[in-house]
Amino acid sequence: MPMDKIKQIPVDKILSLRRLPVPQQQQTENMEEVPSFLPRQLSADTTQLQEKRPPPKGRWMSASAVDLPPPQRSPMSQANRQRELYSPNQYIFILKTLVSVIAVCTFLSMVLLSRLGQNGEQDANPKVLILLWNEDLSKMPRRPTHTECGCVITTHRQHFDKPYDAVVFNADLPYSLEDFGDINRTGNYLSVFAARNPLSLAHGPGPWPSDDWPFFNVTMSYRLDSQLVWSEYYFSHVNRARRLNSFRAPSENFAEDMPGNKIQLLENHIRKKDRLAMYFLYEVDSTSQAESLYLANLRKYLDLDAYESCVGSNDCSHYHFMLIFDSTACPDYVPTQMYIAMHNFVVPVLIGGGNLSHLVPPQSYISSRDFPNPKELVAHLKHLMNATEEYQRFFWWHSLYKLRRTSLPYCQLCSYLKLTQEERRLETASPVDFGNWWSTYQCPKRFTTFL
């Protein structure tokens, strides 16, 4: 349509065509009446409520926003909302959410660091590799492949392209040399004979070929004449981690040498003891018959409790004594249960066993050999239970020594592998002749009775 044909409309007429708002009174008249059953606050006149309510404050509010009435909420609804916001369940939900977020972040960071560490080890082409030939994976405290003191410890026989520097044979478990010839090894690799249990129970070297004898060129066991002394626990000075093989006699006033915090710790442990004695469960067979007979005699004079372990919340520390049986009496051998008892502030009662005077602090345990029969032993235990000061003297060694646990069992072997041949010779006091080392050591015959 041509522009000249459009009829112009006056401005005042356009403005008159705009819809005017309906007066407030007319709107009210057209609305339905407020039901009478509503609360008084809701049935009141909206205009009066708006006049009573002060205008909102704040520099961000515009003039038009100030004129708008706020949304109305019933008092019951407001109370429910306040109760919902400040209820204990709300706080518990927030706390659980925060804990979950922290746990997820921690787990992801550990996984990331672990992968970075493994990649770094593989990329750096580690210099020292140690293969655990027959280790029990279910009892390994760490991953099947991990690092100790800069060496890679693994149970995977084909894990790296680089040859292994050492192969460890655990004599506490069965083993064979099947597929051993397929293992990639260095020319001067170490074949390690390792044992923590008495050698009278160990799996010996077996019928090796004459050209490979002696097959083992490093010994790692509890024996003090081993090239590497290996045990789960060991004693040292308080401020030095070096293993000790000799101890001084206890002083009359040992508390004077003990820090105040250790005295308080010791008194707290003794104060909570309320049971006499316990022992670890064992497999009943022909080899444990002597133990069963001795326990049967002990039960005539006292009540005994039995546990599978002393870990977690049940650390056995509420007992005064722990009965420990050793039917081997092998030289240099200390039953692991002895260390567990002393670590948990329980006095060990050794039944059987050998000479431990150079292996544990003197007057730190009780030997059944000092009593003619189980009845006399029980009488002595009950006496000590009621004589607090006399019982407390069994812990005198805390003033000078510390019982440490070997958290990295192959760290010593790793350090040994990094030495030169001359340094290795100076580091160990015993020769490498495994045949002589194996044949000259003798364990007494097993105890057939402890009575």
SSE layout and pairing:
Blueprint: H1 11-16, H2 24-30, H3 40-43, H4 46-52, H5 63-67, H6 75-85, H7 88-123, E1 129-132, E2 145-148, E3 151-154, E4 164-170, E5 185-195, E6 218-221, E7 228-229, E8 233-237, H8 260-271, E9 275-280, H9 289-298, E10 305-307, E11 319-326, H10 336-343, E12 347-352, E13 366-367, H11 374-386, H12 388-392, E14 401-405, H13 411-417, H14 421-427, H15 434-440
What does this structure look like?
Helix content is about 30%, strand content about 15%. With about 450 residues, the protein is an alpha/beta fold.
What characteristics describe this protein?
451 residues, alpha/beta, seven-stranded mixed β-sheet, five-stranded parallel β-sheet, 15 helices, 14 strands
> What is the end-to-end distance?
128 Å
Please summarize the sheet with the most strands: 7 strands, mixed
Give the CA-based shape: globular
- Helical fraction: 25-40%
Contiguous helical run count: 15
Strand adjacency order, main sheet: 2-3-1-4-5-6-7
> Which structural category do the helix and sheet elements fall into?
alpha/beta
Mean of residue pLDDT values: 79
β-sheet strand percentage: 15-25%
Low-confidence segments, given as residue ranges, are: 24-29, 57-66, 118-124
Order of helices and strands: HHHHHHHEEEEEEEEHEHEEHEEHHEHHH
Number of strands: 14
Taking Cα atoms only, what radius of gyration do you get, to the nearest Å? 40 Å
